[in-house]
Amino acid sequence: MLKFSDVNMSFGSVTALKDVSFDIDKGELVYLTGPSGAGKTTILRLLLREFKPTSGKIIVNGQEIQDLRRKDIPGLRRSIGAIFQDYKLLFDRTVAENIAIALAVKGVPENEWFDHVHDVLKMVGLPKQSELFPSQLSGGELQRVAIARALVVNPKIIFADEPTGNLDWETASSIMDLIYGANDHGRTVIVATHHPDVLKRRKGRKIELKKGKVVADTK
Ligand SMILES: Nc1ncnc2c1ncn2[C@@H]1O[C@H](COP(=O)(O)OP(=O)(O)OP(=O)(O)O)[C@@H](O)[C@H]1O
Ligand SMILES: [Mg+2]
């Protein structure tokens, strides 16, 4: 479902990834681990086609994406629910509007937005916060909104980049449980994290990176 073949990625003189290869099947739970600067976020950004690899092949849903045409990039991104550490929410829009935007981008008819937004906010435990603005929420709540926005369009693949960031362990656990729930529903889930506690919470495949190289893969 997702495949890297001998992928190299350099930013100027910095080598972020070196000969990285892996193959992830549908429904897998995969942790990308390794110290800061190891290349975890770079892998997720390549999968979203934020930039092209310096060399190598990347396949998502059976399609080679490294040479994808610009007009085909939004289609790729719609198949992926991405959750970032900095949430990437719009701060001048309400919680409900932030989530509805994902539905609009996917082309869901407007008269269906309210129900979808309501259902997903209930799922992440924020049914009463829909009309608040992001600046009125706590860090854990913001992360829940980011998860709601990723899940509302029912993507086949979920990426989460350090989803537990600076959250306390109780909040972090409940965030991870939402992500694991998506995996229980058959979604392929990739979590980039260097928190050992997250890795211990649920068993999954670990792809460990060091200085841009895969040094272990428990597949
Ligand atoms: N856009 C960029 N321009 C230049 N260098 C970059 C860019 N993105 C990443 N890098 C470099 O590539 C390397 C890997 O970065 P990456 O963000 O993938 O690491 P990471 O494993 O996600 O680290 P962290 O755990 O701190 O988030 C780092 O040396 C980083 O400085
Ligand atoms: Mg990172």
From TrEMBL:
Cell compartment(s), UniProt: Cell membrane
InterPro entries, sorted: AAA+_ATPase, ABC_transporter-like_ATP-bd, ABC_transporter-like_CS, ABC_transpr_LolD-like, Cell_div_FtsE, P-loop_NTPase
Gene Ontology cellular component list: plasma membrane
This protein's UniProt keywords: ATP-binding, Cell cycle, Cell division, Cell membrane, Membrane, Nucleotide-binding
Subunit structure: Homodimer. Forms a membrane-associated complex with FtsX.
Entry-linked PANTHER family: CELL DIVISION ATP-BINDING PROTEIN FTSE, IMPORT ATP-BINDING PROTEIN
Membrane-topology annotation of the record: Peripheral membrane protein
Organism whose genome encodes this protein: Candidatus Woesebacteria bacterium GW2011_GWB1_43_14
Segments forming domain ABC transporter: 2-219
GO molecular function: ATP binding; ATP hydrolysis activity; transmembrane transporter activity
A Pfam family assignment: ABC_tran
Stated name of the protein: Cell division ATP-binding protein FtsE
Function: Part of the ABC transporter FtsEX involved in cellular division.
Family: Belongs to the ABC transporter superfamily.
Domain of life: Bacteria
GO biological processes: cell division
